[in-house]
TrEMBL record, chains A, B, C, D:
GO terms for molecular function: formyltetrahydrofolate deformylase activity. PANTHER family: FORMYLTETRAHYDROFOLATE DEFORMYLASE, FORMYLTETRAHYDROFOLATE DEFORMYLASE 2, MITOCHONDRIAL. It holds the Pfam family ACT. Belongs to the PurU family. Catalyzes the hydrolysis of 10-formyltetrahydrofolate (formyl-FH4) to formate and tetrahydrofolate (FH4). The keyword Hydrolase applies. This is Formyltetrahydrofolate deformylase. The gene is purU.
Amino acid sequence: MERRFRLVLSCPDRVGIVSMVSNFISSHGGSIADANQHSDPTSGYFFMRVEIKAETLPFSLDALREAFAPIANSFAMEWEIQDSNRPKRVVLMASRESHCLADLLYRYHSDELFCEIPCVISNHDKLRSMVEWHGIPYFHVPVDPQNKQAHFDQVEQLILQHDADLVVLARYMQILPAGMCEHFPHRIINIHHSFLPSFAGARPYHQAHERGVKLIGATCHYVTEDLDAGPIIDQDVTRISHRDHPEEMVRLGRDVEKQVLARGLRWHLEDRVLVHGNKTIVFA
Amino acid sequence: MERRFRLVLSCPDRVGIVSMVSNFISSHGGSIADANQHSDPTSGYFFMRVEIKAETLPFSLDALREAFAPIANSFAMEWEIQDSNRPKRVVLMASRESHCLADLLYRYHSDELFCEIPCVISNHDKLRSMVEWHGIPYFHVPVDPQNKQAHFDQVEQLILQHDADLVVLARYMQILPAGMCEHFPHRIINIHHSFLPSFAGARPYHQAHERGVKLIGATCHYVTEDLDAGPIIDQDVTRISHRDHPEEMVRLGRDVEKQVLARGLRWHLEDRVLVHGNKTIVFA
Amino acid sequence: MERRFRLVLSCPDRVGIVSMVSNFISSHGGSIADANQHSDPTSGYFFMRVEIKAETLPFSLDALREAFAPIANSFAMEWEIQDSNRPKRVVLMASRESHCLADLLYRYHSDELFCEIPCVISNHDKLRSMVEWHGIPYFHVPVDPQNKQAHFDQVEQLILQHDADLVVLARYMQILPAGMCEHFPHRIINIHHSFLPSFAGARPYHQAHERGVKLIGATCHYVTEDLDAGPIIDQDVTRISHRDHPEEMVRLGRDVEKQVLARGLRWHLEDRVLVHGNKTIVFA
Amino acid sequence: MERRFRLVLSCPDRVGIVSMVSNFISSHGGSIADANQHSDPTSGYFFMRVEIKAETLPFSLDALREAFAPIANSFAMEWEIQDSNRPKRVVLMASRESHCLADLLYRYHSDELFCEIPCVISNHDKLRSMVEWHGIPYFHVPVDPQNKQAHFDQVEQLILQHDADLVVLARYMQILPAGMCEHFPHRIINIHHSFLPSFAGARPYHQAHERGVKLIGATCHYVTEDLDAGPIIDQDVTRISHRDHPEEMVRLGRDVEKQVLARGLRWHLEDRVLVHGNKTIVFA
């Protein structure tokens, strides 16, 4: 994969942003491989993502950041520049259900997801063999229902030790404490097995069956303090019928969950997801 | 279209129902053109729909009903037999938005929906010309916000006068009073412009925009006393992005609404929808 | 709708295009409302579409074109600038099937499609009343199977007389002569009732039934000399089953045809479709 | 899973088939858990699938077959009765691409697909470790381009030795010789990475890119002598855009291939697919 610098920014909208950014790039001979922008008339904000062919710029990543900072400051941008050659470090968390974990491991193994997976953490020991076959360390951190905090302390420790850029809850069935959500803002991705905001919380397929819906879905979102209410990255649905009891819904839903989570994770890894308030801009 | 008798039934499940029904049909020389059945292990109920080629039976519709009644009674069936050649009488109701109404009128006009439309009722006079071009009477029944009941009394009167088998709320934006819902059980179909149970009530596209969902939808359901909570007949969704403000969501949603309503209505007209509790069995 | 100038361009890719274009705009105080770009590594071409808020520029449309021309020339661009306030003139053509025509007329009538429809041309007289209800002139130009050229001469005459920017074949079932295709390059849009390249030519639903496919589709494309082989603008599909005989496939397919044609037309009207060779870039 | 006998039959349509079959079942106290039927007016054929709760019948599988045979003969049925508790034996074949194989192995491993996999055969040694982790023997049978028949002889030998009910070509990139196709009629399932009949043969994603289609797809079908022309079991598509070069199409297509193959295989394993001529009836 050709190396690229990915500039992602948001700022209050005004005349001249694109011009200033593209001038900066072209004045240094930079070749733009891909670019997306979005003006939101409601919030008055402007969002942009530019991929620059790294070899066409006379900068290291750090030098590029330094050179761009004055422009960023003059427009009051929130911004970052990422190197497409540097894989993000992603800690996966799971419980007993293996479908999302197995799917992500396969995509990682087959080079479809560009990242490093320093470890998998689970509150059960069930999926160890599958994980270790991929050459990835597996940490079993049990949950004591009387003292869940001990579990989360240990989990947070592991995340920090492994220097994670991102945590993915691949059907990890515990509710994270508020503190942990705050420590990793927009750095924890969850897959919820319903089309949110319908059927938040426990046993969404049973809720869906109870209500008699004709489609079931899955939602990939950033985790915030509010359960299943964080910024949505992607969603999808699949059709069911009166024949499908909760067990079949669980089976059919798995394929949607896997795809939605893999897609959302991929977009995050490629720096395509910008968060603004409780919404996302996805430059897919 | 070849004339058919449609037998639709539900009853507690037990051995021998299909055998008894199919024996009854074949013993009179009846040829089955289509048949569907469903056993619900949760409720212990059995559901069936059979289309019999009318010409192969030596019965009129009434005689067929009479002949079948003893079997129905012995299995404690809820049942009906419909004649595919008899169009149902469907009263359409609308407000100012024309897309669902225009779509249904077109499908009716082009013989895609087999029914009669004795009249259209609206609380505005805006769509009169479109309706009358189709040769259908248009009744403008204004709503006095101080006395809505007068409006509903007049509407109910019109429905009864026109001998309606079914009422379709094609984006009719008033909430029906409980009494009216009870008078026409499973005989009023509504299209709600969200993927229920998300975003029930007013301005669902604005609610969806607020939440930042990535798909919007529509739901066709029978009207009950509980707002937007009746048995769901069909649902569908379409993808949106961060670019789509509520106005674009309204536009994109229209196509979903039209299709979901038309499909749900068609299934009802063909006696394919069975209601059990708050759910539907759709033999599509 | 806020007035916008839409700049659409393509040229050989090289460093500095975005910078030059955005500088030009911002140096005149122009505010960019929307922008898309695409670099195709295979062809080495660059494609761009920019919407500028017209009120922020000190130019009339003509003056803007004049001011931009030197930049365009220096990059060897194919380009155009359109005024979002100027509706394109679209001549619709149909035969006996009304679904696509009725759908486009409704969208036009309800201001969903921003265009003018100076007339409808058909080789049958069947749809006159529907068209005239919309206040649009209807020209019945019969086809003599022994002398089709006379028909096409008359059609071409009408198109020119009505100063059409675009011709839409809304299930017009005649094959256009090569000469006519050449006269209106990328200015004739057709809807074909299959998922091209499968089932080109006559009776695609019957071909699909014969082959036993599980999805049927529709394709909206620009018309070229080669039958059903022009640049594809949009496609979509719907699921069918073994129950669906060609008649049901025709019915189910209609909804796909309508949507795909309306979407493709809308994109064309909004100057979102760029043609390169036999492919399209759609900045949707 | 509750044990069931699955009766699947087809025969020329006439009055009394359902009655005779259901009488047979109910007269022995059999409880029908699921039933589907289809009359094809074009061919004049009738198709039926019935699931009977095994415990409600006083028969072993063999005794049931014997008891039913006279009825089957009197209607000239093609028929079979399968025991839901007996897993089919499925030999998987692959080349170098692992996505379909890994997906099927995962579904097998997680009990989503009820079958036995006695072995995997490949013309490369690349996927051995993945297969053996699942406890499944792996046979590497290289292909000599000068003498392909030796390869196929060995493959056929392995299939017979392992007593396969079914062979699944999970992106096995060799064209089977006609003789082998004939030896296993409707017992070899292939996944082709296009929406057939478009883009049969080699490099379908490149063909699709060349044509500029807006959706790509996959097709699961029974293998016959005619390349990519056998009876279609299932198909699906996914949307692409001008941004997607063949490499991205390959990536996006993988998810469709996996799902279509898994769904088609599942239906086959559950005896839901009936072949008639070059088409399938799928009682899904």
